[in-house]
Structures are given as structure tokens and as C-alpha cells.
């Protein structure tokens, strides 16, 4: 049997549910009398909302098309493009999650290499015409071609595999560094995926050297064919600079330092990718591709990939269909927004509402100076967007005109949605809502951005508590994707539906949360940090406790996070939770001293530890080891999540994970928090069924 027959026998049966991306071949007469090109169009039969992906059947289909092309002697070139708006976005992730053995995993890698490399080995020039999104294996198809054109309208070019716990396994780690140099390749392969899966656009891909020519979307294919004809005729020559003189060692070392800073060894994929990029400097194509096959086989059978795919599914699917959200038809139209307060958080919200909803937004505060500062912040941020080309001059002027300030809440008289962002004090918030309710229309939604206080208590004195809803943003407002929407005891469905509709319009991922102290993210982070800080209060050296969970690869260490949110805020939330659950949430004496001292945290401006701040936590005589701190924290998280689920704070463990991924930045390779606790044996019983977010036993 040939390799292709062996792979077909091994892989065909397991992929019967694959949505097959077909390779549709047609002959195209190139301009200028250049000859006939066989043009392959990748198309899975759906519109752009379901991108082209490749499972085994799709690879076999492309291989068959290439075999037909290879048998012909009347062709001068082969080209590959995608259906409208989509080139291809890589491997079939649903199928990847069901790979049952290392043999299967290795076969998938080897099959992809066998098929894709044929594009560059047909004996005639090969062209990729990248007309739409090209990610993962989709970009790797293009890299196997001799030449590439790209549309300036392409919204996403990326190799996101490391984000999910994989490596680019169909040629990306070997071909891209030789094409654009190791430093630029590492940006796409490692740095961008680890920066919240950042992607680049078509013009940026051209500037990096990923593509050889850039054309406008309107006549992209026609212009690409003209360019290809000139290449075939020898009128256009594409120079490929040698990359042997590039400083590969420095590029790899710099990237390894970055990965260590972000992950501290927690996820194997970026490190494996770095090794493969380093190998590309000297390896033959066969050697490099074989190494990719081995890496893919190892990682496909790892927990990190399964956790990454679970997290990806949460963000792509569950976040778009929030559990428990009322029928969207109940949502009321929002034509004007009021924001109580003009501080930094309020100003960030005002800009977001104006930019996404494109409705008037009015800020109120106690004096003109605060108002001017808040509105000025919005205008300054709009100017930054204009300077970056994110908005046009006309859009910038409209945004500035939409955001105004008022010293009186009478400006809310025609508002449909009013949100407060004032000091986190129950009495202050109740006073604000009493004043707002006196002037707003009967159906105006009243929203609070509280991070920990009870909605039910907040609305107890309102004439219409049914229109009060929690609308908890995370800082920075424009960046963090999570929105916790909290239903109080009286909140009605129309109010809740309006809140979800507004959240969607703001391009946030909303999770429905029961009115419970500190809701989800702050409750879990406070329990997490509380255990670490308690260990320090008991005598554990701060450096030991601070780094006890480094192996998880969390975005920040506990005391760095405390410094970001501010000790006063951290202490306030801890006190709130201590009042509700004194047996599980303590109030640190060291934290109280830190707040009283006025210090911003335990770190000095140069990021070294401040000895005087650290000394405020001294006094205990029962130190713990790093492993004891780690176990203590994970046991506490497992206990708190179990209680939250029993209380019905959210609908399911998946909502806990979604909140921690989107609101606390927990990495995809963990899958959130419940898969971590399941795998580590701290969840008894498990939160998720066996095999979910982990390799089946």
C-alpha cells in the first residue's frame, strides 16, 4: 500500500461527520497569452459564516485534484483560492478533539504535509490567491505555493495553533522563517497567539513579506491572474532574500524569554514551536516536516490541546448563546445612555457606548472640573483612534458630539439606559439610584457596575426594582471581553433582555449571574488571593507564596494582580465576602496595613519588591512550602466553585470557565479553572465529564 492508501484506511472511518472542503478545479486562460492555469477553489459548500477547514476527507479531496492536475501536460501554472471572503482557516478542530491515538495524530500531520507540499512540487509555478481569512493550515497551504497574492480586505492572517496548545504542523514552522526571517515568523507563530490570539490584516501580511503582491478586493482575482501571467511570462521576478545571515539564535532566545515571562513553562506548545523554528535554519524540508509530524502527534494527544479546544468552543459558541438569557424579542430599544460619574471607568464606558451604540451619551458628576476631565478623556481617546486610522475624521467628530456632560441628572429625562460608576459603597449607590429614578422614563433600565455589592439590597428602596440590573465591566473596559450581567431578586425579563442586547451591541461576551456576593470572577479571584495572602500572613515568605502557582502560566502572580486592581479595592471586596462567608473569606491584617500605608502594592516602580511593604505582612510563625500553598489554593477554588454551582450562581461549570477566561485572562491551555481542577484531582466529584477538556482515560 502507498502512504496515501495507509492514511485513508486509518483516517477515513473516524471522520464521517467532517464537513468536507472540496477542491473545485477549473481551467483559466491567463492574460497576455501566458497559457492555461488550473485554478483550485476551496469551498465547503457553505457561506462565509462557516469557513473552509480541513479534515482527512478534505485533504484527500485536495490530493485527488492535485493528482489530476499532475497528470496533465497542457498547464503552465496552478492556482488556489477560496470561496467568497474565505481562503481557509486550517484543520477541522472538532475532528482534532476526537483523535484517539498517537498513530492517528501522526497520520494527520503526515497527510497534510504530503498533500500541501504537492502544490510546490508539480513542476509548474504555483500561486496562492489569498482572497479572505487565512489561518493555521489555510495559511500553510499558501506557504507551500511558490507565489502568493493577498487582498487588502483580508481581515485575518494568523497561525493561532500555539494559542490552542498546538504548533503549525503542516509546514508553517519550517517555511515561514525561511520566507520572512525568524523574528517575523516568531511574531506570527508564537508572539501573536500568546497576545490574546492577535491577528494581522492583509496589508500587514504583505508588508511582512508573507505575500508577494497586494491588490484591492473589488478586482482581486482578476488582478492576481494578471500578475501571475506576468510571472509565468518572466516579466515579473520575485526576489527571495537568503535568511542564512539572519540572527536566528537571538530571535529564538528573545522569544524564549518572552514565553517564559508569559507562561513560566506551563504549556509545551510554544516551546515546541520555538524548537521547530530553530530547526528550520539547517533542516531539509523532509527533516523539518518529520519533526512537525512528531510535535503534532505529541501535542494532539496532550491535555493542553483538549483544554484549549474546550476553551475555544466556550468563547466561540457558548459566549454567543448565553445560558439563561431571556428571549431577545423582549429587549427595549436604547436611543440614549446616561452614565453617573465621570471618573476613568465611567469615561471608558461612555466612549464604548457612543462608539458601539452610536447614540447620545451624557455623563453626570458633582462638579464641572470632574465633568470636563471625563468628557476630555473621551475626546482624547477619540483623537487617538483617529491618529491610528481606526476612525475617520467624520466619525471622530460624530463620536465627540455624542458624548456630553451635565451637572444635573435631569439630562437623563429621555434616557433608555442609565448606568452608575460611582464609589463602591451601598449608601452612595442607593442615593444615586433614588435620584435617577425620579427623573428617568418609566421603562428606562437602571444598571450598576458594582463589582461585589448586592443588587437586591441596592434596589430595595426603588419604586421599580424590576428595572435594576447588574452590568459589571472589567478594566480596561474597551479591552476585556467579559460582561457579568446580574439578575437581582426583582429584575424582570424585559430589563434582562435589554441588558443582553446592549451587551451584544457593545461586542461583549455576556454571562448571566445570580445576585451573589462578588458574582463570579471577583469571588474566585478573592478566594484565590485570600489563600495566598493568608499563607504570607502566617509566615510564608512572600516570594514563595507569590510564585507557588507559576506552573499554571496565569497572566499575573497574585500580588502583581493586587497591585493592578489596587490594595484598597482588593480589601473592600475581601471585606464584602468576609461579611457574607466569614468561614471561607478572611480579611488580611497585612492587607489592611498595606492600605493604611497608602502604598500601591508590594512592588516598587522598578518591579522589585518593596521591603517596607513586604514587612507589613510579617509576623506569622507557621510558614508553608510552595507546594502546600499551591494545594491550599486549588482546594479552596474547588470548594468555592462547588458551592457556587450548588447555589446556582451560574448555570453550569462552563460559565465559570468562560468568566475566568474572558474576565480574568486565564489561559486557553488550562481550559479555564474547572478542567484544571478535574485533571489535578481536586474536584471530587469532577466538574466536567471524563474526556471533556482532557485526554480520555
UniProtKB/TrEMBL annotation:
Domain 3-hydroxyacyl-CoA dehydrogenase C-terminal: 519-601
CDD domains found in the cross-reference section: crotonase-like
Catalytic activity: a (3S)-3-hydroxyacyl-CoA + NAD(+) = a 3-oxoacyl-CoA + NADH + H(+)
Keywords: Fatty acid metabolism, Lipid degradation, Lipid metabolism, Lyase, Multifunctional enzyme, NAD, Oxidoreductase
Coiled coil residues, start to end: none
Pathway the protein takes part in: Lipid metabolism; fatty acid beta-oxidation
One of the Pfam families matching this protein, by short name: 3HCDH
Domain of life from the UniProt record: Bacteria
Domain 3-hydroxyacyl-CoA dehydrogenase NAD binding: residue ranges: 336-515
InterPro entries: 3-OHacyl-CoA_DH_NAD-bd, 3HC_DH_C, 6-PGluconate_DH-like_C_sf, ClpP/crotonase-like_dom_sf, Enoyl-CoA_hydra/iso, FA_oxidation_alpha_subunit, NAD(P)-bd_dom_sf
Family to which the UniProt record says this protein belongs: In the central section; belongs to the 3-hydroxyacyl-CoA dehydrogenase family.
Protein name according to UniProt: 3-hydroxyacyl-CoA dehydrogenase/enoyl-CoA hydratase/carnithine racemase
UniProt organism field: Nonomuraea roseoviolacea subsp. carminata
Amino acid at each position: 500500500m502507498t502512504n496515501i492508501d495507509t492514511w485513508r484506511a486509518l483516517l477515513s472511518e473516524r471522520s464521517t461527520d467532517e464537513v468536507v472542503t472540496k477542491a473545485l478545479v477549473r481551467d483559466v486562460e491567463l492574460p497576455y497569452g501566458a497559457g492555461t492555469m488550473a485554478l483550485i477553489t476551496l469551498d465547503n459548500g457553505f457561506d462565509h459564516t462557516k469557513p473552509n477547514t480541513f479534515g482527512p476527507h478534505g485533504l484527500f479531496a485536495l490530493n485527488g485534484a492535485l493528482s489530476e492536475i499532475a497528470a496533465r501536460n497542457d498547464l503552465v501554472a496552478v492556482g488556489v483560492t477560496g470561496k467568497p471572503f474565505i481562503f481557509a482557516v486550517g484543520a477541522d478542530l472538532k475532528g482534532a478533539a476526537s483523535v484517539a491515538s498517537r498513530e492517528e495524530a501522526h497520520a494527520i500531520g503526515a497527510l497534510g504535509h504530503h498533500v500541501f507540499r504537492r502544490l510546490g512540487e508539480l513542476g509548474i509555478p504555483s500561486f496562492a490567491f489569498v482572497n479572505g481569512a487565512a489561518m493555521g493550515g489555510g495559511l500553510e497551504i499558501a506557504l507551500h505555493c511558490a507565489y502568493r497574492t493577498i487582498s487588502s480586505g483580508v481581515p485575518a492572517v494568523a497561525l493561532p495553533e500555539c494559542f490552542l496548545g498546538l504548533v503549525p504542523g503542516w509546514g508553517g514552522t519550517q517555511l515561514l522563517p525561511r520566507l520572512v526571517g525568524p523574528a517575523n515568523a516568531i511574531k506570527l507563530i508564537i508572539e501573536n497567539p500568546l497576545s490574546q490570539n492577535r491577528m494581522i490584516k492583509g496589508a500587514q501580511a504583505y508588508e511582512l513579506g508573507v505575500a508577494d503582491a497586494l491588490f484591492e478586493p473589488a478586482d482581486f482575482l482578476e488582478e492576481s491572474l494578471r500578475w501571475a501571467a506576468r510571472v509565468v511570462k518572466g516579466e515579473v521576478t520575485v526576489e527571495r532574500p537568503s535568511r542564512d545571515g539572519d540572527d536566528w539564535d537571538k530571535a529564538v532566545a528573545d522569544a524564549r524569554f518572552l514565553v517564559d515571562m508569559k507562561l513560566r513553562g506551563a504549556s509545551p506548545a510554544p516551546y515546541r514551536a520555538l524548537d521547530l523554528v530553530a530547526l528550520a535554519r539547517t533542516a531539509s524540508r523532509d527533516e523539518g516536516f518529520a519533526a512537525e509530524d512528531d510535535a503534532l502527534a505529541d501535542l494532539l494527544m496532550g491535555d493542553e490541546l483538549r483544554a484549549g479546544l474546550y476553551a475555544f468552543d466556550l468563547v466561540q459558541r457558548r459566549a454567543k448563546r448565553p445560558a439563561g438569557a431571556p428571549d431577545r424579542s423582549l429587549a427595549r430599544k436604547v436611543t440614549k445612555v446616561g452614565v453617573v460619574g465621570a471618573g476613568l471607568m465611567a469615561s471608558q464606558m461612555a466612549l464604548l457606548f457612543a462608539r458601539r451604540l452610536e447614540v447620545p451619551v451624557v455623563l453626570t458628576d458633582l462638579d464641572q472640573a470632574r465633568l470636563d476631565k471625563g468628557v476630555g478623556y473621551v475626546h482624547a481617546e477619540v483623537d487617538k483612534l483617529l491618529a491610528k486610522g481606526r476612525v475617520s475624521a467624520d466619525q471622530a467628530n460624530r463620536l465627540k458630539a455624542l458624548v456630553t456632560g451635565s451637572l444635573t441628572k435631569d439630562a437623563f429625562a429621555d434616557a433608555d439606559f442609565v448606568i452608575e460608576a460611582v464609589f463602591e459603597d451601598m449608601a452612595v449607590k442607593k442615593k444615586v439610584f433614588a435620584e435617577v429614578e425620579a427623573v428617568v422614563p418609566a421603562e428606562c433600565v437602571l444598571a450598576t457596575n458594582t463589582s461585589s455589592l448586592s443588587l437586591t439590597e441596592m434596589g430595595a428602596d426603588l419604586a421599580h426594582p424590576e428595572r435594576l440590573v447588574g452590568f459589571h465591566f472589567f478594566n480596561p473596559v474597551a479591552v476585556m471581553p467579559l460582561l457579568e450581567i446580574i439578575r437581582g431578586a426583582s429584575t424582570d425579563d424585559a430589563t434582562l433582555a435589554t441588558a443582553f442586547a446592549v451587551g451584544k451591541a457593545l461586542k461583549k461576551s455576556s454571562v448571566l449571574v445570580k445576585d451573589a456576593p462578588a458574582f463570579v470572577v471577583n469571588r474566585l479571584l478573592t478566594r484565590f488571593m485570600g489563600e495566598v495572602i493568608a499563607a504570607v500572613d502566617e509566615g510564608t515568605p512572600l516570594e514563595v507564596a507569590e510564585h507557588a502557582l507559576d506552573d499554571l502560566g496565569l497572566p499575573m502572580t497574585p500580588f502583581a494582580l493586587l497591585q493592578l486592581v489596587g490594595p484598597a479595592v482588593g480589601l473592600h471586596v475581601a471585606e464584602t465576602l468576609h461579611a457574607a462567608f466569614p468561614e471561607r473569606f478572611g480579611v488580611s491584617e497585612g492587607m489592611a496595613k498595606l492600605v493604611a500605608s497608602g502604598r500601591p502594592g508590594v512592588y516598587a516602580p522598578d518591579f522589585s519588591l518593596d521591603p517596607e511593604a513586604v514587612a507589613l505582612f510579617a509576623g506569622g510563625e507557621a510558614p508553608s512550602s510552595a507546594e502546600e500553598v499551591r494545594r491550599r489554593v486549588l482546594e479552596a477554588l474547588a470548594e468555592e466553585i462547588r458551592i457556587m454551582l450548588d447555589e446556582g450562581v451560574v448555570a453550569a461549570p462552563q460559565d465559570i470557565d468562560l468568566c475566568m477566561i474572558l474576565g480574568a485572562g486565564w489561559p486557553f491551555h488550562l481550559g479555564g479553572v474547572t478542567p484544571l481542577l478535574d485533571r489535578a484531582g481536586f474536584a471530587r466529584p469532577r466538574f466536567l465529564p471524563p474526556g471533556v477538556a482532557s485526554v480520555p482515560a
